[in-house]
Amino acid sequence: MGAEQMNVIDLRSDTITHPTEAMRKAMSEAEVGDDVYGEDPSINLLEQRASEILGKEAGLLTASGTMSNLVAALTYCHRGDEIIMGDQAHMFWNESAGVSALAGAQVRLVPNDDQGKIDPADLSAAIRPRGNVHMPPTTLVCLENTHNRCSGAALTPQDTKAVADVAHEAGASVHMDGARIFNAAVALEVPPAELVKDVDDVSFCLSKALSCPVGSVLVGSEEFIGEARRWRKMIGGGMRQAGVLAAAGLVALETMIERLADDHANARRLAQGLADIEGLKVDPESIQTNIVIFEIEPSVGTAPEVLQALADAGVKVTPSRTQTLRMVTHRQVDSADVEEALSRVAGVVGKLREQNKA
Amino acid sequence: MEVSNGEEGMSMVVMGRYGVLYTKPRPKSAETSPRVIDMRSDTVTRPTEEMRVAMFEAEVGDDVFGEDPTVAELEKKAAELLGKEAGLFVASGTMGNLAAMMSHCWSRGEEVLAGDQSHVVLFEQGGAAQIGNFFLRTVRNLPDGTLDLEELRSKLQPEGKVAGDPHKTMTRLIVVENTHNMMGGRVIRPEYMDRLAELIRGLGIRIHVDGARLFNAATALGLPPAELVKHADSVTICLSKGLSAPAGSVLVGTAHFISRARRVRKSLGGGMRQVGVLAAPGIIALEKMSQRLEIDHNMAKFLGRGLVSMSDLGVDLDLEAVETNIVFFGLQRSDMTAEDFVARLEKEGVANGDRVIVKMLPARVASGEVKVRAVLNHHVTHQGVECALIRIREILANRGGRKRKQET
Question: With contact defined as beta carbons under 8 Å apart, do B141 and B118 qualify?
Answer without folding.
Answer: yes
